[in-house]
Amino acid sequence: MTTRSRPVPFAPGSILWDIAGGVRLLLSLPAATVLQVAHPAVGAGVDEHSVFRTDPWGRAQRSLESLQLWVYGGERAIEEGRRLRRLHKSIGGTDTHGRAYHALTPAYYAWVHATAYPAFLRAARYMSRPLDAQDERRLYDELLRLGDILGIDRRDMPPTPEAYWPYFDAMVRDELENTVVARELLDPRRPVPPPDGARAPLRLVWPLLRPSLARLHVFVTTGLLPPAVREHLGLSWSARDERRLRRFGAVVRTLVPLLPERLRYLPVARAARRAAIQHATSARTGLFEPPKDQ
């Protein structure tokens, strides 16, 4: 019998520390979400138990804050991983094929986590810079570490990037389908209210603004899905669409680095990055003295 080692929180210098808290995450996460809910069991769980229809902004905010804690929360990340498992213990039911499911079934829970890898890689390719082979391997190793924090047994994940892609192809071919939730998330006509707490002017123009934002959201989400997934789900994507996505990505790559820190990073990430810089500065100037060896 083996003893699982305690998860190690993330720190500056890791790839996830650099990319998991940037505003570009808001562009890549929806593609990962579609990959997740295209699995019938995951889609059924979201369909039956999520508030994404009745409280879309609140759910998105809570999910983002949780995700940020995984990478930037230090010791809080480990407790957040435990909290998520407790939260998912009660989620179960029957999917559209009449098969029983439970959110913590290892294969399903691992798939939800595994979708981060292609989502991050494709977002980097279009919205920032493509990762080289070494960084792709580093990212995958870090995602395995992140799985440790979330309580995902490594036996349920492909151990290497080379093993990941046959696993991914088999999941797409044998498991994924255009579920009810996937169709909703990719429908630009889906009714979404103005953001919670929006001021009166935004609420006033929201009916005019929402259709354009929804079309952009669905366009980017569809474009960041791997081509094999688009084809499998029956989603159209033309050469013209590809050119438009590349132009959009070029704009993002140019503009985001010019933004001030408070706009480039999400709140939890921004606070953690600021604290890390202050800690490093204090250590260099002698205001912080690390503990001596016993």
What descriptive keywords fit this protein?
294 residues; disordered C terminus; two-stranded antiparallel sheet; globular; 15 helices; mainly alpha
Write a structural description:
This protein has 294 residues and is mainly α. It has one domain (15-191, 202-276). Helix content is 65%, strand content 2%. The chain has 15 helices and 2 strands. The protein has helices at residues 15-19, 25-37, 40-49, 56-72, 75-88, 106-114, 116-127, 133-150, 161-174, 180-185, 200-224, 227-233, 239-255, 261-264, 267-285, and strands at residues 92-94, 100-102. It has a two-stranded antiparallel sheet with strand order 1-2. A hairpin with a 5-residue loop joins strand 1 (92-94) and strand 2 (100-102). The longest helix is centred in the last third of the chain and has 25 residues, at 200-224. 28% of the residues are buried. The model is unreliable at 290-294 (pLDDT under 50).
What is shown here, in short?
This protein has 294 residues and is mainly α. It has 15 helices and two strands. A two-stranded antiparallel sheet has the order 1-2.
